[in-house]
């Protein structure tokens, strides 16, 4: 049987890196996609290989269609695609909507929404029984922000994750009888570098006393939920967004 391949977009750091480690530990070949930080991706691949796993780092910006096609061509070269984790995502500096430029909005929606759609499209072409595939699972990274709206911080980011909630439901129903399950997770405040990239490196420390569990989540805790949604243990679960937020924003 051919190698089973799982593609993790933005797999080099944070939640994606935790997912990549766990996917490789299960024996899948993992494609560790990254945008810019090749050093982090190479270090993770070396770590996975040292632990006996198989991983390949592939540079590619998910908002760029040619890059996405290249990513999936690599998956084809390595084996049979059985899973996609649509994890690549960005935030931006805190701003009100009345301050946001077209360039900011375009970047936010291109990476967080169009990138996820392009990757989902390519995954469905390979995994759907309608296209001769053998099925598989897609897990999308949403955010608690889609329910909170993130006012005075990044309403654009929250709205981009709202699009992910909706895409998860719609795509799940499109491919439900084609062997593909499509689900998502909505993390709350998770301790990764993403907060620094949004200009708030101390966000976790500042917010934790206001979180229900009085602590942020870890990348591993989110990855465990993603691994369940990728696995056959969730074989009758599709179209679902799982809140992995320590109780933050669990109500609609
Ligand atoms: P992170 O630590 O900032 O890591 C982001 C990863 O995405 C990196 O591997 C980065 O690659 C990659 N990436 C960024 N832009 C990309 C692009 N255009 N194309 C391909 N890869 C790209 O982020 P994280 O905190 O792990 O977040 C992962 C996902 O969870 C995101 O979708 C985020 O919105 C969501 N989420 C996170 C939190 C949280 O509190 N951390 C909460 C809710 C939702 P480089 O290393 O090359 O930059």
From TrEMBL:
This is SDR family oxidoreductase. PROSITE patterns: ADH_SHORT. InterPro entries: NAD(P)-bd_dom_sf (IPR036291), Sc_DH/Rdtase_CS (IPR020904), SDR_fam (IPR002347). Pfam families: adh_short_C2 (PF13561). Belongs to the short-chain dehydrogenases/reductases (SDR) family. It comes from Roseibium sediminicola. Keywords: Oxidoreductase.
